[in-house]
Specification:
This protein is an all-alpha fold. It has two domains: about 5-50, no CATH class; about 70-279, MetI-like (MetI-like fold), CATH 1.10.3720.10. About 75% of the residues lie in helices and about 0% in strands. The longest helix has about 35 residues, at about 245-279. The protein is globular. The protein starts with a helix and ends with a helix. About 25% of the residues are buried.
Length: about 280
C-alpha cells in the first residue's frame, strides 16, 4: 500500500493548522481596525468604519490631554531612524578597523562585545536612569538614542566585522596603488561591496529600536515624547476600558513603517542575510 498520499495529506493538514493558528490574530487585528463595535470576538462586521483611524489625529483626554496618537509614531520614526543611522555608522567604522587592523587584545574586545550583546536591557536600565537623571538626559530623544545605540551596537559590530573580513583586500590595495588613501579606498571600493551588509545592519537596528519597550518606558516621562511602543501600552487605560478598534488601528499604523522599509530594502536584505549565512 502506498502511504505517500496519506503522509502528504497529514503534512499539509498540519501545516494548514499551524498557518491558521498564526494568521488568525493578524486577521482579527485587521478586522477590528475597521469594526465600529470591535471586541474580543472574531467576527465579520456588518459595517466598515474609519473612525478608529481618524481618532489617531484627535487629541487624547485624561492625563494625556492634548496628545495626538500619531505623535507617538512620529516620535518612534525619529528615534528609530537616528538610532539605526548612528549604530550603522559606528558599526561600519569599528567593524572595518577590527577586520583590517591587528592590535593587542583584539580577541578580548570582540568577546566583550559578545558578552554585552547577551546582557538583557533590564540589567542596565536602572544604572542608565540614575546616570541620565544627573546629566539631565531623561525624557530626551538624544538621550534615548544614545542608550538604544549602546544596546544595539554590539550585535551590529559583529555583523560588520564578519562582512569586512570576508571582503578581499586586493581591491583596496589596487586603489591605494592608483593614488587613493586608505580612507578613500574604503569609501569608494570597500563600502560599496559591503552595501548589503550595511543595509542589513541599518534595517535590523531600525526594527530593534522601533520595537524597544523597556528603555523608553523608564526614560521617557512626558506623554508628548513617548514612542509608539510605550504609547500603546499606556493607551489601555486612557478611557477606562480597552477599545479594541482604536488599539487595532494604532497597531496597524505602528507596523506600517517597518513593512514599507522591508519592501524597499528587501533585495539588499536578502543578499545581506545570505551573506551572513555563508560567512
Amino acid at each position: 500500500m502506498n502511504r505517500r498520499p496519506i503522509f502528504l495529506l497529514a503534512a499539509h493538514t498540519l501545516l494548514a493548522i499551524v498557518f491558521i493558528f498564526f494568521i488568525s490574530p493578524l486577521i482579527w487585528l485587521v478586522i477590528s481596525a475597521f469594526d465600529p463595535e470591535a471586541s474580543t470576538e472574531f467576527r465579520i462586521p456588518s459595517t466598515i468604519t474609519l473612525k478608529w483611524f481618524n481618532s489617531m489625529f484627535e487629541p487624547l483626554g485624561g492625563v494625556r490631554e492634548g496628545v495626538l496618537p500619531v505623535t507617538w509614531i512620529i516620535n518612534s520614526l525619529i528615534i528609530a531612524t537616528a538610532t539605526a543611522t548612528l549604530v550603522t555608522l559606528l558599526a561600519i567604522l569599528s567593524g572595518y578597523s577590527l577586520a583590517r587592523y591587528k592590535f593587542k587584545g583584539q580577541s578580548a574586545v570582540v568577546k566583550m562585545f559578545v558578552i554585552l550583546r547577551l546582557m538583557p536591557a533590564m540589567v542596565v536600565a536602572l544604572p542608565i536612569v540614575i546616570i541620565y537623571a544627573k546629566l539631565n538626559l531623561l525624557d530626551t530623544f538624544h538621550g534615548l538614542v544614545l542608550a538604544l545605540s549602546a544596546l544595539i551596537l554590539p550585535f551590529a559590530l559583529l555583523i560588520a566585522d564578519g562582512y569586512f573580513r570576508a571582503l578581499p583586500t586586493e581591491f583596496e590595495e589596487a586603489a591605494m596603488i592608483d593614488g587613493c588613501s586608505r580612507f578613500t579606498a574604503f569609501v569608494r571600493v570597500t563600502l560599496p561591496l559591503a552595501l548589503p551588509g550595511v543595509v542589513t545592519i541599518w534595517l535590523l537596528s531600525f526594527v530593534t529600536a522601533w520595537g524597544e519597550f523597556l528603555l523608553p518606558l523608564v526614560m521617557m516621562r512626558s506623554p508628548y515624547t513617548y514612542p509608539a511602543a510605550v504609547g500603546i501600552y499606556y493607551w489601555f487605560g486612557v478611557y477606562g476600558r480597552v477599545e479594541y478598534g482604536r488599539i487595532s488601528a494604532f497597531s496597524l499604523l505602528f507596523s506600517l513603517p517597518t513593512v514599507l522599509i522591508f519592501l524597499v530594502s528587501r533585495k539588499f536584505l536578502a543578499r545581506g542575510i545570505s551573506g551572513l549565512v555563508v560567512r
